[in-house]
Write a structure and sequence with these properties.
4 helices, Rossmann fold
């Protein structure tokens, strides 16, 4: 049996999505937001982050790319990490 994200991701889970302010990453981030997860995206495009946060005010974001987060230990406390 294949389970969907809505069956295995608990509300209030913490999801970190890299390159999450636009494109596929944004779609993934918004899907987690739709499931009442706490979402943080990182992206290297400040304009994309601004647009994402305006449309998704419950999310948080960092101007960074994935390797910077890894070097800083940025995955602490996350239930879901999506490296996009």
């Amino acid at each position: 049996m294949i389970e969907t994200a809505t069956q295995v991701i608990a509300p209030e889970a913490v999801a970190l999505i890299t390159a999450g302010a636009s494109g596929i990453g944004r779609v993934i981030a918004e899907a987690f937001l739709d499931q009442d997860c706490r979402v943080h995206v990182c992206d290297s495009d400040p304009a994309a982050i601004e647009s994402f946060l305006q449309e998704n005010p419950k999310a948080t974001a960092t101007l960074a790319n994935a390797h910077e987060l890894i070097e800083q230990g940025g995955f602490s406390g996350c239930v879901v990490v999506t490296l996009n």
